[in-house]
Amino acid sequence: MNSIKVPRLDWSRIVRSNDRIVCSHMTSEPVALLHSLAGSDTHDHRMNIFLGVPFSSAARGFPTNTTFTTYGGMGTAGVLARTHTTHMSMVHYSRSASAFASGEEGVDVVLVSLARAPDGTLHLGASHGYALSAARRARCIVAEINALAPVVFGAPWPAELEIACSVDVAYPLTETTGSGISEMERSIAAHVAPLVANGACLQIGIGSLPSAVLTGLSDHRGLGIHSGMLTPGLWRLVESGVINNSHKAIDPGISVAGCVYGDASLYSAVHLNPIVSLRAPSHTHATSVIARLDRFTAINSALEVDLLGQVNAETVTARDGSRRDVGGVGGLNDFVRAAQCAAQGISVIALPSRQVRPDGTSGKARIVPVLTGPATVAASDADVVVTEHGVAHLRNATLDQRAHRLIAIAHPDDRPRLLEAAQRSKQIR
User: Does the CA dihedral 52-200-399-414 come out positive or negative?
Assistant: First the structure.
């Protein structure tokens, strides 16, 4: 992004002191506009900028007196929080747009990155999110029109929303950094694959473990996509015919996502492609929508799971007790709960039994007696947990059944300590 051509704007005429500036996010992050604003001295940068989930390093160019709000430590937000005051929003992603629509979240100026179709119409690019709802309540809308952004159907810019200022830019979207799949991840994926029924509708996260899971689904048939993200792993299953969205009661034949995040070939593949549609959080993450998708299967990962079945997907705790945000609430709860409302739906949390260090050795336990961070997913919402050692079915299980089943899939060296802790707490009697 260092080679990006930064537009020059008179920000003093656009932004007022102490304004709250809301940006479109993920692969529609307005990177050029952020670089431009950071390079100005507008109001001594006394402003609050809502970034959602940033993927670029553009925000790090702002002076330290600029305050940011993000959806946790996902993307580049965790790094930003080390140098700038960063507030972490706890909103469930299904409510991210409605929070702006209702006025619960304030907004003065909106910065968006858009794509232009051959017919001249504007679209939200590769990510939907809360931007439209925020724009409808903003005093001023500023847009960059990225010539290299794909036009993805489902997210046209409304004609009635007046853009006060727009600039033409051209830079490639952020790409996922592919990494190899480990043998442990293949082992976990082998346990997940039988849980996915033919004809299931998938929601899956990003990273090497989800990629391993998707690789293990190559023999499945008639799968569908209704996910927060459309990734290269999912698209490979589309190209191979494993995913054809033929069993979906809603959006049949269409791969539905809130964001496209991958590489140049994926962005090219979705450009003006009628079998892909971007939708707002009120559609992608809503229980009322997902409940209509039979065999909806949510597959996600986490930092740790305790013996109650609670899941921490937000923070890691160091030995000195300090906490670092590396994840967030995001859409995890939305998908976990909605999956259990769909006919034959299932929610899977897949993770190694122990942290894997960069050198390949095992570190801290991931199945723990008590969470060291917040409970992103409550015990009452627990469904299925998978490690390389097997599968623990927790839905409708009693507390002592949960403990026994989770201990059975923990690292063998951790099982005696976990059993002792469960007995001490009287979870196992």
Answer: negative
Instruction: Transcribe 213-243 into DSSP letters.
Output: HHHTTTT--SBEEEEEEE-HHHHHHHHHTSB
288-324: string of b/e by CB count within 10 Å (b at 16+)? ebbbbbbbbbbbbbbbbbbbbbbbbbbbbbeeeeeee
Determine the Cα–Cα distance for residues 24 and 40; give it in Å rounded to an integer. 20
Structure tokens, 174: 């952020």
Q: What is the pTM of this model?
A: 0.94
Please name each of the domains of the chain with its CATH number.
Answer: 11-169 (3.40.1080.10), 183-424 (3.40.1080.20)
The per-residue pLDDT for range 326-371, each reduced to its tens digit, is 888 999 999 999 999 999 999 999 999 999 877 777 889 999 999 9
Say if CB 380 and CB 331 are below 8 A apart. no
293-307: per-residue pLDDT in tens? 999 999 999 999 999
How long a stretch of residues is the chain?
A: 429
Report yes or no: 34 and 22 within 8 Å, Cβ to Cβ.
Answer: no
DSSP per-residue codes, 398-409: -HHHHHHHHHHH
Non-local CB neighbours of 120 within 8 Å, separated by 6+ positions: none
Q: Cα–Cα distance between 397 and 171 in angstroms, integer?
A: 51
Across 1-15, 36-50, 76-90, 349-363, least confident range: 1-15
